[in-house]
Design a protein that fits this description.
The complex is a heterodimer of chains A (185) and B (77).
Chain A (H helix, E strand, L loop, with lengths): L9 H8 L3 H23 L2 H17 L10 H19 L5 H6 L15 H12 L3 H12 L4 H8 L3 H21 L5
Helix pairs in contact in A: 1-2, 2-3, 2-4, 3-4, 4-8, 6-9, 7-9, 8-9
Chain B lengths: L2 H14 L14 H16 L3 H16 L4 H7 L1
Classes of the chains: A mainly alpha (185), B mainly alpha (77).
Chain lengths: 185, 77
């Protein structure tokens, strides 16, 4: 989904726009994995990511008549997925949802540096979970996931400059929180 | 916060929250759940809640009891 390209032909997109369920299933089959992966990056919780993928495609189908077939489906779906993920983050109690995933249940591409103590890692995760959801999403996608700023901007519906600002604010708040916890980066 | 501090925080964040595997995929087929959700939505849209029925009933009783008020209501609609 990164480039927004699609193997689904234009007529299929038009059929989806008209509310055709078969066309919607074809789009779902092609895009469920990237949508799930994108949501997982933001919420860091596999069960929630599955539920939110369902929620996202439900929202997508409800909005089928607003889809413009001349534009790619991927970025549109990612934007809806980002909104669903942010809604979920806002509904969570801070400091709860990240900790269980920190135990290593998340399918990560790399393991943490053994030179960094578990305590520092968990305090960083805790500080991160206290950030406002909009800052969390921007920071995790830009810093931890190293996604291109323009993709993040499109998904969040903001400018690249606003993404950079959110990341900066997130890092500054993170530093302050870590200092309060006795960690001076 | 200078660039050095910013980089250190970024490194800490990367260590605390390692990137998710590129090919991460759901453990189950989510299509049946999407269909279920769409069905539930369709059922909910068809269903009229009891409070709507109660309001409608109340309005009907009021209109029958005080028919002279109907033109007044219509005027303010």
């Amino acid at each position: 989904m990164a480039d927004g390209s699609s193997k689904v032909p234009g007529t299929m997109l038009q059929r989806f726009r008209d509310g055709d369920l078969d066309a919607f299933e074809a789009l779902f089959r092609e895009h469920q994995r990237p949508v799930y992966g994108w949501i997982l990056r933001i919420v860091r919780n596999t069960a929630a990511a599955e539920d939110l993928t369902v929620e996202t495609f439900w929202r997508i189908y409800r909005a089928h008549d607003r889809f413009q077939p001349e534009y790619p489906f991927g970025p549109w779906a990612r934007r809806i997925a980002t909104r669903a993920a942010l809604d979920w983050l806002r509904a969570q109690r801070p400091e709860v949802e990240l900790t269980a995933e920190m135990a290593g249940t998340l399918p990560s591409a790399s393991k943490g540096d053994p030179g960094i103590a578990d305590e520092i890692r968990s305090k960083t995760a805790l500080a991160f979970s206290r950030l406002p959801p909009s800052l969390r999403a921007a920071a995790i996608l830009a810093v931890a996931e190293e996604q291109p700023h323009k993709d993040i901007a499109a998904a969040l519906g903001i400018t690249v400059g606003a993404v950079k600002l959110r990341v900066f604010r997130a890092l500054r708040l993170l530093r302050k929180d870590l200092e309060k916890q006795g960690i001076t980066p | 916060m200078n660039a050095h501090h910013e980089n250190q925080i970024k490194q800490l964040l990367k260590q605390a929250l390692p990137p998710v595997e590129l090919n991460a995929e759901p453990e189950r087929d989510l299509w049946p759940a999407v269909l279920r959700r769409l069905d539930e939505d369709a059922t909910q849209r068809k269903a009229v809640s009891w409070i709507d029925w109660a309001l409608l009933g109340g309005l009907a009783v009021f209109a029958v009891s005080f028919p002279a008020t109907i033109p007044v209501f219509l005027y303010y609609l």
